[in-house]
Amino acid sequence: MQLTRQTEYAVRTLIELVNSPPGAMMNSRTIAEKQNMPEKFLNKTIQILVRAGMVETRRGMQGGIRLAVSPDSVTIADVLKAIEGKLAINPCLEGDRYCENQGACPVRRVLQRTQEAILAELSRETLADLAKGEVFCS
């Protein structure tokens, strides 16, 4: 399993917005240049973040993008879900997907624990923690 570049860009964009003055609008071109991202791809990523309610945009001379949520309330797991959808490291863990081997499969239990551990780790720090560099290692 590998997170997509779009999820990475989304996290980096959100951290950039956390580090900007509160309520200030940032230009996507500025974010793209500062973060070394293709602006066209960033704009598509921003639209997904808008639909998820994490950022808001405004057109015009005073327009741009800004954070629409508290940086203390959003984790990488939240961004992952917004960009990628629900995490499932194997099709049998997608929730409503039926697998005829589900009851007797010894691998499923291990995969379930692994998935839960990944989500727990991705939920440990908020955007505010990441922006401050306060990443907790165990």
Plain-language structure description:
A hairpin with a 5-residue loop joins strand 1 (55-58) and strand 2 (64-67). Helix 1 (5-18) crosses helix 3 (39-51) and helix 1 (5-18) packs across helix 4 (76-84). The mean pLDDT is 88. The chain has helices spanning 5-18, 28-35, 39-51, 76-84, 106-122, 127-132, and strands at residues 55-58, 64-67. It has a domain at 5-86 and 126-132: Winged helix-like DNA-binding domain superfamily/Winged helix DNA-binding domain (Arc Repressor Mutant, subunit A). It has six helices and two strands.
Residue fraction in strands: 5-15%
Helix/strand-derived category reads: mainly alpha
Give the spatial strand order of the biggest sheet: 1-2
How confident is the prediction overall: mean pLDDT?
A: 88
In sequence order, what are the helices and strands, one letter per element? HHHEEHHH
Report helical residue fraction: 40-55%
User: Under the CATH scheme, which class of one domain?
Assistant: Mainly Alpha
Name given to the CATH architecture of one domain = Orthogonal Bundle
- Global geometry: elongated
